[in-house]
Design goal:
The protein is built from eleven helices and 21 strands. It has 519 residues and is α+β, with helices and mostly antiparallel strands. It folds into two domains: 212 residues, no CATH class; 163 residues, no CATH class. α3 packs across α7, α4 crosses α5 and α7 runs parallel beside α10. InterPro entries: Hydantoinase_B (IPR003692), Oxoprolinase-like (IPR045079). It holds the Pfam family Hydantoinase_B.
Amino acid sequence: MSKLDGIALEIQWSSLIATVTEQARALQRIAFSPIVREAGDLATALFDRQGRMVAQAVTGTPGHINSLAAAGQHFVHEFPPDTLHPGDVLITNDPWLSAGHFFDITVMTPVFRLERCIGFFGSTIHHTDIGGYGVGAGARDVHEEGLWIPLAKLYEKGVPNALLHSIIRRNVRTPEHVSGDLAAQVAAGRVGAERLNALCDRTGMEDIQLLAEAILNRSEQATRESIRKLKPGTYHGESTFDVPGGARITLKTAVTVDARAGELVIDFAGSSPEAPIGINVVLNYTAAYANFAVRACLDPDLPNNFGSLLPVKVVAPEGSIVNCRYPAPVNARHVVGMYVPMPVLKALHQVMPDRVLAEGSGAVWTIQIQGRAEDGTPFTSSMFNYSGGMGARRDKPGLDATCYPTGVAAVPVEVLEAAMPIVFTRKELRPGSGGAGRQRGGDGQFIGFRMRTKESWLLNVVASRTELGPEGLEGGEGGKPGRFLVNGEPVNKSQKMAMAAADEVMMETPGGGGYGPPT
């Protein structure tokens, strides 16, 4: 086949989306960890032989998806397609090459047709544990944060890399969960490979290169055309928020619209420097969320792939908190990374005011618990997340207990209570926490819990916006900041805490900012 007409391209594009979405659903069905199975903290995508992301699933988080897109080319550079064999599976969790911290492991499965690699199916998921410090911001450098897996082969010609599997199992607290989730990633990649070969059989394609080129070229041109419609110039945005321990972080952006070239440049010069705690962000993750903010405003219906990402350039000074240098600690990088869209949206408000939203609560509040149950059985929780309120939109209120920009959901309390010795004492919306306005900001929520244990236990809570609430937009009022309490007393720490058996925890997540003056 030498040429694709519009109808054939649309049919095959729909088939690719169905394929990567089936890969994602398979991964969720067979994953061991609630954070993947229930919350959907994952990304899956198809790549061509050059490591360019062609299609992504309809589910997944922006941070994972767009970081996975960046990882594809690193894999291809280290493992050229013609050096691979059927049954090979590749892996890494290098923060600077993939999704920004050790918990997110990326697995790439080469797809073979007639003994030739024609592409890859990739997935990134948040794993239950990766050893080291655990979820939290208390580590002093990246080496305290867990197991670092370089670009490597997890399977070679269908045979497990026994030494690598053993190293992973011996370095994590929940080896069965981690091994099970890795197996789920491998199985989901094989599902994708089978479906792609079936598509090639139906259409008579020897590979996907012609199809990939058509999709990527059209995606790039459509994105450039959308940018050309914007008013050229440089627009500035700034957002300040507090992080665990009380430090205040400022993110600054200068968004330059080059309408002639159809390009956007997002420059984070002037943002805060690297932090001494693990809230630093690698450039991959910064670019992932900056791109998401642009695409959400520019044209949400465009495909998200290598082609559509190409016209948006994201730069940040090396050594800044959004482009940290090795060996900066990064485990809680979402605390800053999920605020990245806020200053970008403020800049875009000057170009397309009807498409942006007010500041929201920012990062999800993440929790990890370690200890022993009443019968002495050790437990380590899967990370679970709780959102505050979303910022209001120009014509609609902000959503309650919904975190923009991540798409990750909260694991249901019933699932958590069945998986570990935890009892939730309160779970309800926090009325009035959203900022007033013509459109009101979304409300945060109350989450209270205690542990069913006779011994002390360890708690990592990564809370933000406990001092500075989200700002409103165009005269809207700000949302209320959050509160984290232990036995009724406010706590603001970045380190892991030792808790007594009877301690009770209460989290009050922030509300979103309002839009427009209240009437």
